Amino acid sequence: MRPPKPLEWHKDDLLVVVDRPRFGLKDPDYRDYIVERCLGLRPGMVVVDVGCGSAASSLTFVPYVLPGGRLVGCDRDPEVLQIAERHAAEQSLSDYVEFRVGEAERIPSEDDEADVIYCQTLLMHVPDAAKVLAEMIRVVKPGGLVAAMEPDFSAAGIALVNGEPRPPERAALWAHTMTLIHKGAIERGAGDWTIGSRVGLIMRELGLKQIRVRQTPGSFTIVPSTKAPSNREALDWAMELFYPPEGSDLFRLQRDNYLAGGGTKEGWQEFADMRALETEHIMGDHEGSRSIVQTHIPGFLSMGRLPE
């Protein structure tokens, strides 16, 4: 097969598209939709973010609850909370936020503290999502909102446009391996990366009402090499997620989950070799302006209200 020729790009127009915040709550239009229309944040509210990490997402909530409101961020890692505090200070928000160390299964908050309690990509990592959601319900006020934004990696994928297509046998190997990875993770109590589409059902079983589920944008197109910093950021993010380097934490986690799910060492080596080959192919075509990398990760924002 002849290598694809470099594509003709309208670079000036392209930079306008890619050189801006595009990811999740960093995008102002998307943030307004989530915060105002879905979460219903307004001045005076108390928002609790469980598993807040560096608070890059939830700090964007603060202007919507001022004056009179505040953000409480909880995470089990005190070091990452130091980063969150620094981010809050850099944005002059320290007076309106509080960070607490604690586990998601034992949220460091009083009963009925929050008007809205929220988590993002947290339930996918815990062994018992229902237990964490029940704890979130304890913290929210009667009539308050419980919200969780979680992915479903069972349908996640990465495609290469204008490059050599993935042969059917490779596609089958990818799908089979990912199925065993997700199966093994659940059996090991290492989380469930397919939980996003089922969170609303768990909320209903726990007694929440007015259940709403919104699919969140999960497709990102990463264009060939440009001067836009966000373009390289997106490429690095996609490659680390779908093609983690050997020896990385995610590589080891996926390997262990795969073996626990019924896979063999020989099968894992075949999959690892395939990913190494595709990594070389994607990066070569991308840097040579011969392809577009497109990723898709279905995400779901599930919301339910605690009855008055």
Task: State the gist of this model.
This protein has about 300 residues and is α/β, with parallel strands linked by helices. It is built from ten helices and ten strands.
Element-level helix/strand string: HHEHEHEEHEEHHEEHHHEE
User: How does CATH name the architecture of the largest domain?
Assistant: 3-Layer(aba) Sandwich
User: Number of DSSP helices?
Assistant: 10
CATH class category name of the largest domain = Alpha Beta
The CATH fourth-level homologous superfamily of the largest domain: Vaccinia Virus protein VP39
Mean pLDDT over the full residue set: 87
Largest sheet: 7 strands, mixed
Instruction: Indicate the proportion of strand residues.
Output: 15-25%
The number of distinct structural domains comes to 2
Based on CA inertia axes, which overall geometry fits? Answer: globular
Give helix % range: 40-55%
Structural class: alpha/beta
Low-confidence stretches: 1-23
Report, as a whole number of angstroms, the end-to-end distance.
65 Å
Spatially, the strands of the biggest sheet line up as: 3-2-1-4-5-10-7
Instruction: Give the total of beta strands.
Output: 10
CATH topology of the largest domain: Rossmann fold
Question: What distinguishing features does this structure have?
Answer:
about 300 residues, alpha/beta, Rossmann fold, 2 domains, 3-stranded antiparallel β-sheet, 10 helices, 10 strands, about 40% helix, about 20% strand, globular
